[in-house]
Amino acid sequence: MSKPLRIGVAGLGTVGVGVVKILADRREFLSAASGRTVELVAVSSRDEKKDRGIDLKGVRWEKDARALANADDIDVVVEVIGGSEGIAREVVEQALSNGKHVVTANKALIARHGIALARVAEQRGVALNYEAAVAGGIPIIKALREGLAANEITSVTGILNGTCNYILTEMEKTGRDFGDVLIDAQALGYAEADPAFDVGGVDAAHKLAILASLAFGREVSFENVEIEGITQITAADFKFAKDFGYKIKLLGIATLGVDGIEQRVHPTLVPEGSPLGAVSGVFNAVAIEGDRVGLLVLEGRGAGEGPTASAVVSDLVDIARGLVMPPFIVPTSHLKPPAKASPSKSKSAYYLRFSAVDRAGSMAEITRALADANVSIERIVQRGEGKETASGRMPVVFLTHETEEGSMRKALIHLENHKEVAGTPLVIRIEKSGSR
Ligand code: NAP
Ligand code: HSE
User: Fold this and answer.
1) What does the pLDDT profile of the chain (436 residues) look like in tens digits?
2) How far is the CA of 12 from the centre of ligand 1 (A)?
3) Any idea which residues carry the catalytic annotation?
4) Ligand 1 pocket at CB < 6 A
5) Over the Cα atoms of the chain, what is R_g?
6) Closest among 139, 264, 142 to 209, alpha carbons compared
7) What domains can be seen in the chain, in order of their start residue?
8) What residue's CA is closest to ligand 2, atom 4?
């Protein structure tokens, strides 16, 4: 058997604890699968006294996580602290510069600095693996790198944030408030340290930017992702969506267009029985379209201790087996620069919810504003459950036919002039395709 692979873990929160448990519980299997023992040598976290329910006997405690990146007896640093800057970035940069492999679950770091870090990893001939950073337990990066290598990928669509999918599913099922359900998701260990990243769509955007880079062979361009979160969705929207046969999901969508890559994260109406419409709770799913394979959908738990640590350990096994691959599938010198497709040409049907004044002519004013922007209406539903609200307004929903984003933007500008009548509309895209 070869020399042991010596691991240092930086961060002992939800994911770090999960990794330590798997390394202990699966010790024998991991050595047999990789031909060498995989040994936890040292750990670092903020609070040495905290009871984490793990046995750290014989494992060195480093007060400063940077010590792991500099220690002679460590081959791989597992960074599970989080954050795109500060200590996490320093530990990873230092470890790679020192010629140590790095495994991380940190999508914020990879989305913002992944290319620069990959260049260092390539120069030093070490691995920078981040399977856990995208879609938790789903081996999506391995799928793109290995199983789908024969394909030109044309689109990637995913439910990429477990917290949001959990919140949307619970709100729909129970009619509970958004804030109430978010507290549950935090307690279950799904949410980011700053949950605004989850519900604001930023976490999904980090993951989408990474996937788009891997799928389309471009440098990661997080700045080019159009982002919208789920905080505007209300219980009424779930009822309307259900009547129309839709679910509401936060989707990340990346497509290859003629003038560049389109990357968007936003709440979306998807058909109830479609592959992504059927994904509930903390589950994530990624639908990939390849020119040879056609449509492929992978589904699994997208957050939490077990699924995320499972992905981290799979990266460790690759390293233990001696697999060191370019972090972005092809060497960074082969990646094309990012190019953003023009969003105004992007086409979609839309769900528009207004809080309209319930009087003769108000509907005519709204439909005129839409018609003037060339937006064609498919259905209109007004529902007040028989009573007006205190403000004398009624929720009204329009479904539009497919229209260019530019026309929809124009319609929203026209509607500004009818704010007194229509209120500020909530706009949600509709994806009618079965894959979405
Ligand atoms: P977490 O539960 O908040 O854990 C973070 C850990 O980092 C804590 O143990 C904390 O120490 C430690 N830490 C903070 N500052 C430190 C410092 N200066 N030096 C050393 N340790 C420090 O976070 P998590 O959920 O495990 O997430 C970790 C990473 O995995 C993040 O990048 C996250 O985005 C990613 N991720 C998480 C999930 C998930 O489901 N949770 C899924 C996929 C990816 P103390 O415990 O001592 O305070
Ligand atoms: N906060 C993230 C989520 C963790 O809810 O999906 C997994 O990346």
Assistant:
1) 689 999 999 999 999 999 999 999 999 999 999 999 999 999 999 999 999 999 999 999 999 999 999 999 999 999 999 999 999 999 999 999 999 999 999 999 999 999 999 999 999 999 999 999 999 999 999 999 999 999 999 999 999 999 999 999 999 999 988 888 999 999 999 999 899 999 999 999 999 999 999 999 999 999 999 999 999 999 889 999 999 999 999 999 999 888 889 999 999 999 999 999 999 999 999 999 999 999 999 999 999 999 999 999 999 999 999 999 999 999 999 999 988 888 777 789 999 998 888 778 888 888 999 999 999 999 999 876 545 555 678 888 999 999 999 999 999 998 888 877 778 889 999 997 655 5
2) 6
3) 207
4) 10-16, 44-47, 50, 65, 80-82, 87, 105-107, 132, 136, 189-190, 192-193, 303-304, 308
5) 24
6) 264
7) 2-136+309-334 (3.40.50.720), 140-301 (3.30.360.10), 344-430 (3.30.70.260)
8) 303
Enter the tokens of residue 384: 């007040």
